[in-house]
Design brief:
heterodimer, A: Ubiquitin-like (UB roll), about 40% helix, globular, B: about 290 residues, alpha+beta, Uridine Diphospho-n-acetylenolpyruvylglucosamine Reductase, domain 2, 3 domains, five-stranded antiparallel beta sheet, four-stranded antiparallel beta sheet, 14 strands, about 35% helix, about 25% strand
Chain lengths: ~190, ~290
């Protein structure tokens, strides 16, 4: 039956040479051969985007590519985003903006967001939402995901306090929420 | 999901790819050409397709890119949707193709999926066939007998079936420039990244405040893309006026044979075609504000 094929792929800055069956999907190669389980398999049907990685710098769904197609190319996964122990700006923004709940979609969301910002460094909120149309969050936590991406596009710096320290969508959203909570508190206070 | 096992070949020339196809034909192998793989790989994972040989066209230089021929553009079959959606030559001369390509699936799929792959796959709900038909694209095919060209009217032959025969490869598509025409691709879906329930590709040329000529391609209104001929005829000479355009677009479903499925029955699609056609033409002539 089908023979194996030798491939050489650079993944997260490290070169690998392996024999693979042609039917091995890129996501299976990353997870099962290289142990890079940061890239997740969600739907396995090209819909959810959890398996998004970069191939030569552009986002692809690694469940919809054979590992042999990556021969001679560079792959970046979520595990290659942090540099020298420091989170990439998008990772930091997702952390600080609470842009995740269960976290399953997060690696794919961050990889697609990075690709989006490379193609369009200053997207509007609508462009961010459209840019993430191939990534599904089943916790439906899209609001903070969009806010996190917007904050990176806006060049927001995060302080040690864990809150966004300059004007941004995130900041606005946080402020509105805080105001609502304050209003509720005062109403409760008035009743008691 | 894991596809059935297959042999893999990655030729670096079209001649080598043709030889692989000829060899597979002689030995009775079931062979599939792999372009961007965004339709083929999912159907292989579902084992709806289980080819014994996959020939990857991704390593053949010269199958992607856009060439300006003066009055037309030639687009390599392996040009990704993302490039179609963002290339300045396409945007300047055939913006209908940029508009349609930008609606295909999602960004990741558009990075991998190709113009030629989508055309040969010929999914009735695919977004690229109807614009190609509306533009009278010419399909450049090569095979054992050498190169040949097929006009759009004869290219789409049925459900997932085109004029590309076994042993042949679609290498490029030539489209005339539509400088001075208005265009719009209007797609109706329920949710993001869904296949078109119905979509309409519109090209409209306005002269002296009157529609001189219109071309409309319909997506998912039959097993192949169709021209909305009755609406095209009704639009010729029509004033650039929302009511007149709506009246012409009321004929958009004439001659169609849409499928019924979970997204809508045939009658619903026939109704949608008239609505979506009206929106497409209004946008093409710059009357978006009057859409409804």
């Amino acid at each position: 039956m089908a023979s194996s094929t030798s491939i050489s792929v650079e993944v997260d800055g490290v070169s690998y040479t392996d024999n693979v069956e042609p039917r091995l999907l890129l996501v299976q190669y990353l997870r099962e051969r290289l142990g890079k389980t940061g890239t997740l398999i969600g739907c396995d049907t090209t819909n959810c985007g959890a398996c998004t990685v970069h191939l030569d710098g552009v986002s692809v769904k690694s469940c919809t590519m054979f590992a042999v197609q990556a021969d001679g190319h560079k792959v970046t996964t979520i595990e290659g985003m942090a540099q020298n122990g420091k989170l990439a700006p998008l990772q930091e923004a997702f952390h600080q903006c609470h842009a995740l709940q269960c976290g399953f979609c997060t690696p794919g969301m961050i990889m697609q967001s990075a690709s989006l910002l490379k193609e369009n460094p200053h997207p509007t909120e609508t462009e961010i939402r459209e840019g993430l149309e191939g990534n599904l969050c089943r916790c439906t936590g899209y609001q903070n995901i969009v806010a996190a991406v917007k904050s990176v596009a806006d060049g927001v710096e995060y302080g040690d306090s864990g809150v966004c320290v300059s004007e941004s969508l995130t900041h606005e959203v946080a402020k509105e929420l805080t105001d609502e909570l304050t209003d509720d508190d005062s109403e409760t206070a008035g009743v008691s | 999901m894991i596809p059935s096992a297959f042999d893999y070949a990655a030729p670096t020339t079209v001649e080598e790819a043709l030889a692989l196809l000829a060899g597979a034909d002689a030995s009775g192998d079931d062979v599939k050409l792999l372009a961007g793989g965004q339709s083929l790989i999912p159907v292989m994972k579902l084992r709806l397709a289980d080819p014994s040989l996959v020939v990857d066209l991704g390593r053949i230089p010269g199958l992607s890119g856009i060439t300006d021929n003066g009055s037309s553009l030639t687009i390599g079959a392996m040009t990704p949707h993302h490039v179609m959606a963002t290339d300045p030559l396409i945007a300047a001369h055939v913006p209908l193709l940029s508009q349609a390509a930008a609606t295909v699936a999602d960004p990741q799929v558009r990075h991998r999926g190709t113009f030629g792959g989508a055309l040969v796959h010929a999914d009735p709900a695919g977004d690229m066939p109807a614009p190609a038909l509306a533009m009278d694209a010419v399909f450049n095919i090569t095979g054992p007998a050498g190169p040949r060209s097929v006009e759009a009217a004869g290219f789409f032959q049925g459900y997932f079936t085109t004029a590309v025969e076994e042993g042949e490869i679609l290498t490029s598509i030539t489209v005339p420039k539509f400088d001075g025409w208005g265009s719009h691709y209007e797609k109706f879906t329920r949710v993001a990244q869904q296949w078109s329930i119905v979509a309409v590709a519109a090209l409209v040329r306005v002269e002296g405040g009157v529609i001189a000529e219109a071309r409309l391609g319909l997506t998912n209104m039959a097993s192949t893309p169709l021209r909305a001929s009755a609406t095209e005829a009704a639009l010729a000479g029509c004033a650039v006026d929302a009511e007149a355009i709506a009246a012409a677009c009321a004929h958009a479903a004439e001659g169609t044979d849409p499928a019924s499925d979970l997204n809508g029955d045939a009658a619903y699609r026939r109704h949608l075609a008239t609505v979506v056609a009206r929106r497409a033409v209004l946008a093409a002539v710059g009357l978006q504000g009057t859409r409804g």
